[in-house]
Amino acid sequence: MENKSGVIYLMPTPISDDEDTLKHLPNYNLEILKTIRYFVVENTRTARRFISKCHLGMVIDDLEFVELNEHTESKDVEDMLKPILAGENCVIMSEAGVPAIADPGAELVAVAHRKNVRVIPLVGPSSIIMSLMASGMNGQSFAFNGYLPIKSGDRAKRLRELTKIATSYNQSQIFIEAPYRNEQLVATILETLPANMRLTIAINISAHSEQIKTLKIEEWRKTDMSSYSLRKNTAIFVIGL
Q1: In this structure, what CATH number is given to the domain that contains residue 195?
Q2: Last residue of a domain, which of 71, 97, 121?
Q3: Same domain, 19 and 102
Q4: Largest interatomic CA distance in the chain
Q5: What is the pLDDT along the chain (241 residues), one digit of tens a residue?
Q6: Are residues 207 and 224 in the same domain?
Q7: Does pTM top 0.90 for this prediction?
Q8: 50 and 137 share a domain?
Q9: Is 176 in contact with 146 (CB distance < 8 Å)?
Q10: Three-class DSSP category at 164
């Protein structure tokens, strides 16, 4: 029996608010965007602003936006699939970067697979992958660990675990933190990791203010961190050999 449902496009969006960040998105993405009327997004305001900046001649008020984020209940996710099952194509967008990676969009994608709906990932900027690319660390074996524990003792314990994995398997370990906790995280990293372990700090990837630096822990301990404005900026961290 022919599948009459629409398809889901996973649409990356710019990581930073710089005006020229559309250069990171292929024209093919924008051509698809022009055909979509149904959007599942992490944040409606951010999604509307992104579409407006694309200058595609779309009437924003004619589009339908449904939010899928950390506040969405699981029972509501399946309802989001109903227009797609009825034949409507859909775009899933994160607030920034790649959808369904460290992003609630993955839950809708999982339901789509169960319902035999085609899911099409599109190319675009991922701060996780871009930080690893620029780190100089092992890109053949790596793991993304999301957020580390908030409590300092638990955070240090988790860092020791990640250090052991990185050392035993030469596997790069990637993680993130909320900007207002970046300074505490870096302090714990410098206190906990061995001197010869390497650390990449990638700040504001793809923005004009982008900073990406890899040093050994012993070198970071001697570095003036004030120029990184860790408390104000988004950062990706990578540790490895």
Answers
A1: 3.30.950.10
A2: 121
A3: yes
A4: 66
A5: 456 899 999 999 988 776 566 777 889 999 999 999 999 999 999 999 999 988 888 999 999 999 998 888 888 899 999 999 999 999 999 988 899 998 888 999 999 999 999 999 999 889 999 999 999 999 999 999 999 999 999 999 999 999 999 999 999 999 999 999 999 999 999 999 999 999 999 999 988 889 999 999 999 999 998 888 898 888 999 999 9
A6: yes
A7: no
A8: no
A9: yes
A10: helix
